[in-house]
Structure formats: C-alpha cells, structure tokens
Design goal:
This protein is of the alpha+beta class. It has five helices and six strands. The chain has a four-stranded mixed beta sheet, with helices on one face. Strands 1-2 form a two-stranded antiparallel sheet. The longest helix is centred in the N-terminal third of the chain and has 24 residues.
Length: about 180
C-alpha cells in the first residue's frame, strides 16, 4: 500500500511539473512601439539573433551608436540590432521626435529603434522585466546589451563598457548566425 501511495504521489508530481517545464522552454515574444510608427515584434525576427540595446542620446557611451549601426550592417539579413532609447538614467531627450532627429543627424541610423522605454526602473518594458525576473539582469546604465537567440531565448548580456563590435559579442553572434 505504501508503494502504491508513493507511486501515486510521484505520478501526481510528474504531471504537475509538465506545465512548468513547458513554460521554461517557451521563449516569450515582445513588441515595442517603433519610433518610425507601427510596432516592432521580436516574433517577426524568430530564426535570427536579436541584440537589444538600451540607448541614450546624451551619454558618454552614445558614440556606440556608430558601432551598433556597423554591427547591424555586418549582420544584415542574419541578425537584428534593436535600439531602445531610455531616460531611466536621465540622459535621453524628452520626446521620440528629438531622439529620432538626433540619431538621424549624428549617426545616420537605419537599424530598428523603439520609442523611449523604461528599462531599469518604473514601469519597465516587458522584455526588460522578463530579463530581470528570469535571468537576473538589469541594465545598470545606458548601452547595456541583451542578446536573444534565434529561438527568442536569452543568451547573454553585457554592460556599457563592452563595445557592440567587440569580440565578446561578435563571437557569440557568429556562432548563432552560423549555427
């Protein structure tokens, strides 16, 4: 009888664990309002790695926009580089129009860009909440990088000091795109 009780308990726990295991393997899809209008959906980019970078126009790291565009050009059609402007560190313009104009005039950006979002404090964008809650990463400053794999799963994150075209990032990107 005791064996039967243990078997029943084991079976009940196994059945209860199935939805939890599935939830851990499913990568969520996220959407961002596009600074050019419309919506940017990470689900539309499945099959390609996506490097998401919280940006700011008035930061010492702002020149990294040049490398972000170079990285976007280098992986064109094979990976996505997404800029997510944020004023969480008090270094971004007040409006999306100002951000867009600044980036076009100073960096000739063509990579996808979201509207201004919270990434570290306040009502953070769902992607950043997911990265924080599921992977323990919160941007500590502007120009932190979060890499999602072709399946939409979290791969790795880097801080502001890691340049977009550094080997630390491009080696992982190369592995993902050449898969």
């Amino acid at each position: 009888m005791q064996l039967l009780s243990r078997l029943g308990l084991t079976l009940a726990l196994a059945v209860a664990a199935v939805p939890l295991a599935k939830a851990e393997t499913d990568a969520p899809a996220f959407s961002f309002p596009n600074i050019d209008g419309g919506t940017l959906n990470t689900a539309d980019w499945r099959g390609k790695p996506v490097l998401v970078v919280n940006t700011a126009s008035m930061c010492g790291y702002t020149p990294q926009y040049t490398e972000l565009q170079a990285l976007s050009d280098q992986y064109e059609g094979r990976a996505i580089v997404l800029a997510v402007p944020s004023d969480d560190f008090n270094q971004e313009y007040a409006t999306d129009a100002e951000v867009k104009e600044f980036c076009e005039l100073n960096y000739s950006l063509t990579l996808p860009m979201a509207t201004i979002q919270h990434v570290a404090e306040g009502d953070v964008h769902p992607l950043y909440a997911w990265v924080r809650d599921q992977h323990g990463f919160v941007p500590g400053w502007n120009f932190n990088k979060v890499l999602l794999g072709p399946d939409g799963k979290f791969v790795q994150a880097w801080g502001s000091n890691t340049k977009p075209t550094s080997g630390a990032i491009t080696k992982v990107m190369d592995t993902l795109v050449n898969g």
